[in-house]
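User: Last request for today: this protein with NAP, please.
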Amino acid sequence: MRILNSPAQANGGNGDRKNLDACTIVIFGASGDLTARKLIPALYHLFKENQMPADFRVVGFARREKTDASWRTELRAALDQFSRTKPVDEKVWAAFANNLFYCQGDLTDDAAYKKLETQLAGFGSGPLRENLLFYLAISPSQFGEVVEQVHRCGLLNKEGSAWQRIVVEKPFGHDLASAQELNRELTRYAHEQQVFRIDHYLGKETVQNILMFRFSNSIFERLWNRESVDHVQITVSEKIGVGDRGGYYEEAGALRDMVQNHMLQVLSLIAMEPPVSLEAEAVRDEKVKLLKSIRELSPADVGKQIVRGQYFAGAVNGDPRPGYRQEVKVKPDSNVETFVALKLFIDNWRWSGVPFYLRTGKNLPQSASEVRIQFRPTPNVLFAAQCGSQLDANALTLRLQPDEGIYLRFNGKVPGTTIDVRPVRMHFSYDAEFGAYTPEAYERLLLEAIAGDATLFIRRDEVETAWKIADAIRTGWERKPLTNREFYAAGTWGPIAADDLLAQLGHTWHEPQLLKKLANQ
Ligand SMILES: NC(=O)c1ccc[n+]([C@@H]2O[C@H](COP(=O)([O-])OP(=O)(O)OC[C@H]3O[C@@H](n4cnc5c(N)ncnc54)[C@H](OP(=O)(O)O)[C@@H]3O)[C@@H](O)[C@H]2O)c1
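Assistant: Here's the final one, the structure of the complex with NAP:
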């Protein structure tokens, strides 16, 4: 992982640009949503902040007829909508747009790759032709074809002095077998080290900060174990329903959409051992080790440790919502889960016996992602008589989004003549500390891919280990339709069974709190 230290770097100025090789980014799927919404805005901002290599090109590849000029015009219009800084700086855009080129073709057509090869050859015989980042913003079913074709025409090589890399988006398969097949296709013509699998969660500042927070602060790290931690809660809640993504969601469900990737990534960063260095392989080795130490789930365990749910009609903050089964492109008797809660155990020296609770769902009362480390309570001897149940165990909450920050909850004496103790909070807010500079996840990820640093990308064995966990849960659910206890009204925190899951060990879910509101209290 590249550490940016200077304030100028932290503020987005003066990157490592001089160290970055000249290269060409080839985007397959250049006329699609991801390109317009994320990729081009991210590249524009990197350019604006002087972080792109001194010399670079972007070639967009897709079927639709376009010229360089019409593609640039479309992307400029999209930037008005999707840029994180407004208004768009026209001078910067004009300079950036000079580097954008469009290559029209069908990716099943050999001739299209010849055209691409010729276009790249037009950039000379140096690094702009040789150093290539292939961004596959297309369906995973098309990855194999593209990788084979670019290899066949000499654009992707396993060896050589120049570099070629492939960036792919989730979903990385829909189960272990399909992920293994996809990985085989990707690595047929490229080494694993050339494959950069994006989980945009890892591009978030707050998620990267988990490692910095844990391993650069001795006060917390020495509490980070079974001696001090009672349990951990990871919540990724969404206020939105599936909306017009019903077709996709019917194939995915909350487990595949959120848990297999984002949530297990967050869990591995929270619970992993310190890596021997910040090198990509060292960090990823520890993440895989952690995933492998999650206790395996038999179908019987799934019944006891995993709760799924599906929303029925209700209202989120007064806004009426249809039930999942009434959503467009959803089967009227669908059993797909829109909510899942898990109780996982990590069978290693540090975490033995500590429950890790994960939950995610749609149409919940709030959109928030956070990790709550709940410490063990003190012996209830000194203040029990006076304070009773008001005495809270300490908790540390890492808010990943929104209101990014960290807060520590501990007990304090209420001023006055009585011995009243109540929970108080210490609160760090990213906004207050660092201002509003929050680069989009894709900016960091694209920059790391150009630099060839794979720390923030998912390695093959990580994906496959995570799928093993998800597959075991799906096996436990097989041929079991949802029961009444597994439905929840839109606008609530999931089915009652999710509360029961924690109640088994005397725990309760903590609702994410609005940190901004807390700061003003
Ligand atoms: N959109 C997001 O925010 C997002 C987020 C995470 C992951 N993803 C993943 O990223 C990938 C792309 O998503 P998207 O939303 O951008 O999809 P999209 O809007 O449907 O775009 C698909 C792109 O693929 C191109 N394409 C399809 N078949 C082609 C062919 N035979 N030859 C050449 N080009 C072809 C399309 O070009 P033409 O139509 O011009 O042929 C279009 O540019 C998907 O795997 C998706 O799951 C997307």
